[in-house]
Write a structure and sequence with these properties.
The structure is a homotrimer. The first copy, chain A, is built from nine helices and twelve strands. With about 350 residues, chain A is α+β, with helices and mostly antiparallel strands. In chain A, strands 1, 2, 3, 4, 5, 6, 7, 8, 9, 10, 11 and 12 form a twelve-stranded antiparallel beta sheet that branches. Chain A is globular.
Chain lengths: ~350, ~350, ~350
């Protein structure tokens, strides 16, 4: 038979070239159901995403979808083209949310290859891409640079000269995007669940988010499928047995969403994630792990032209099977406490006192 | 550092005072997704909640959301303020549903402290609250008195003199609320799944609901998170190991919803829960338990001015790992059969013969 | 007490008669939530069901619901009347989808008994029914003949003479229904995830769908409940212990949907299931099994009057805990490879080159 294989095996390192533009498949219309599932999967309680009434009082047309849901959907679309053959996710930079996403919006994603550098062992290499999620009107909803280590199909394949792009070490406060029309004059602290405003947070302050949530296999696989993320390590228990972990790995984004939901207790008024400065999935998580989180305030930044909202830079650390009251983090020797699974540095928008 | 803790630890017994009014956080807009998840989590088959066509034939604008979903959401909102430090849920009274809730409605909840009584050991006390759920128009959707035993933060803390409120032993038929505009002339028995009308039920009659549904850890945690219920015993397996049960407890409301869904086989025309007279979570349930249910008809009551609908007072008992055909219930010695997990006394609305 | 039992035990073989018409209970309004849950449960990625924008470019009002979701809901409605006492599902014929189903549509189902044949052991018999799902306008959404082996309540009960209906061995291409208004001129290969069109497939061609998805107990029970399917073998672990399998069986439809979702990798442009020619649940599946799938192209058929779309007849085989690259199927001795759980022969609609 002389038909070409219909199966996509994803791109390998030698399939990429700098400047390449990739439009990713499967646009997705997000709906109220994605909002409800986001609550059911993670237990998120931020009022702005939970109540149309609350959101309208802030000048928005209705409750926007959770910022991390947008993250999961956009990144999921990129997987079949960018990271199906990835060995490791290495980092993110210049990671910003744009216009809010509402039920009924259709998201699609595209990526541009910014850089490529083969590893010295010639078995793999690092691929830098800028990925952008847009809504049905072409408005940016999420934009970031990501670098991943991708296997080569053929170790002997020739590759072009290395191009290593430079990325900003963090997102500057002036670059944070405040959604148009947002006006926090009507912000209701009681409905939001906290009277702590931007002025109440101080750099160096630590917040124990107290509660833990156990992650079941069924939960993380459901979320990975919901985001149409095809990274097979997450939902193939049979193949998982032959890996070095001997089992499935939970989708790292699931842990980020759990940590964000847990952070409500202490950061309830951090109503919007505006940017990620950097982060690392320090260790894998598995079905049965219980996730806890604590945060450290890194920086507070006023936002130009806004008296109603400020930027709060926070580092949230998630641990497994280790309550966060003991502040598991980086230790004196520079290594992480063995319970740490996530270390995320990001900007929140928080209402100011009037 | 001199910042106040951002983390809420919930109220302890000595934090409450009689007459105190508490507006609970996180209003929630319920949607079609909550309706679908209610079906997926429990397998409910009541036509009125399942079909817009069926509901419109009864004079409603569309399918209302499941009555117990309203219960779960309202009670979930009260947890962070009322029962985060609860030792036990002791009872409910004067528990009535008001206007139906539809997709798009935003529910919020408030509570008034009615009574307080310290326990003789001074380590805890009983708190009585009246909690009310309202929609975005301020209309009552659910109203009840609940009493819970709550820990003291400080055993030595002084407390006010005991106030023990009186509550009605059951909801009188005259107090049952029939939704406005409801007209059962067009009630379709075949679509509803039963030709048994109000007149067909007799006090003392027992109904075996036959089927069983197994409860997985993933299921009860999903529902607890969906209702934004923060009671940590339900989703922290790590902390659960150190409890007297050695594991997570399923949210009791999950079992109520399972029993209600199972009751369809025999009570398919009990299309609306109107009130709860009382009930008890007799024993805890855990992931892996299979829930069965049976019901006993306690009373039939005509409703003033309504020839189309009557009140049916039912007691439903749920058991675990014990099919209900043997009618596990209260035994001769006044103790429950060891398989019983729930004993609920409530009013249903049922169409009458014309 | 002299009240008739309120519990339905379902129909037994002797309760059926040829020509009997049964209107099934619990009409169901499907919503955007069912679309999202279909993605979350199976990981489906077909663009037409995922994106309103994509669907509108093809002349449809919005993204239609997944074809198999319609299958699950219609078949679920028939269970309490047709197969609650079934021993085995024996086959399907003349199985066709009609008008697309959109969020907001209300589906109901009815069946006509076509044939009956008692087994020689007199303990059970085969029941043939034609079942039809319709939307709120009475338009056919799904129509099929199904035959099941159903227990007798009373072995001694007399039954009428056997009537064995004839069914077509497969659905003829001329009988495939192309949704009205569908125009594939604007079909976007990149958004759809494949540039393989109808002309690119050849009879005999095999496609390995590569990935595997592990099925958890919580997953298959959720889907069974979501479809209001009451077949108790699927969600009663306690009763399951006493069966010959010693445990719950996953709903066979869950495996069909997993196989369909997996088939995206290789059949991404098979945007609509138009008909099922036949199929068999070769072996049961259980929680923990990992499902893989491969397909063989059986036939390509042009469709009368359509230059934009063709029929592609495919046989998809799903296996458990056995990747599909070794093509597990029917062996030389006519028996199935022990890993095979599903063998499904069906028609897809696929865009043609212009």
């Amino acid at each position: 038979m002389r038909t070409k294989s219909k199966t996509s095996a994803g791109n390998f390192f030698e399939d990429f070239h700098v400047g390449q533009e990739i439009r990713h498949a499967t646009p997705r219309t997000l709906t109220e159901a994605d909002a409800a599932l986001n609550v059911g999967l993670y237990g998120s309680r931020f009022a702005i995403n939970s109540s149309d009434v609350f959101a309208r009082a802030l000048g928005l047309p209705r409750a926007p979808l959770d910022d991390l849901l947008v993250f999961h959907v956009v990144i999921g679309k990129t997987v079949p083209d960018i990271s199906l053959n990835a060995v490791a996710n290495l980092g993110y930079a210049e990671f910003r949310w744009g216009v809010p996403v509402y039920p009924g919006d259709t998201l699609s994603a595209q990526s541009t290859v910014l850089g490529l550098r083969e590893n010295s062992n010639r078995a793999s290499g690092v691929v830098w891409v800028r990925s952008t999620g847009v809504n049905q009107n072409g408005e940016m909803v999420l934009d970031y640079v990501r670098w991943v280590m991708v296997n080569k199909r053929d170790r002997e394949a020739a590759v072009a000269q290395a191009v290593t792009p430079r990325t900003a070490p963090s997102v500057a406060p002036a670059d944070l995007i405040v959604p148009k029309g947002l006006d926090l004059a009507g912000y209701d602290d009681i409905a939001a669940g906290s009277s702590d405003r931007w002025e109440d947070y101080q750099p160096g302050e630590r917040i124990d988010h107290v509660s833990g949530i156990t992650l079941e296999e069924s939960d993380h696989m459901f979320s990975t499928r919901l985001y149409q993320n095809t990274a097979r390590v997450h939902f193939d228990a049979f193949a998982g047995k032959s890996t070095r972990f001997g089992r499935r790995l939970a989708y790292g984004g699931h842990v980020i969403s759990l940590a964000r939901a847990l952070s409500f207790n202490g950061l309830a008024n951090g109503f919007r994630m505006a940017a990620i400065n950097g982060g690392s999935h320090v260790a894998p998580t598995f079905g049965g792990d219980t996730i806890y989180a604590w945060s450290e305030v890194l920086e507070t930044a006023p936002l130009r032209g806004r008296a109603d909202v400020g930027g709060l830079r926070v580092r949230t650390i998630a641990s497994k099977d280790c309550p966060a009251g003991s502040w598991p983090g980086k230790q004196a020797d520079g290594k992480y406490h063995p319970a740490v699974v996530l270390d995320l540095d990001y900007w929140l928008l928080v209402p100011r006192r009037r």
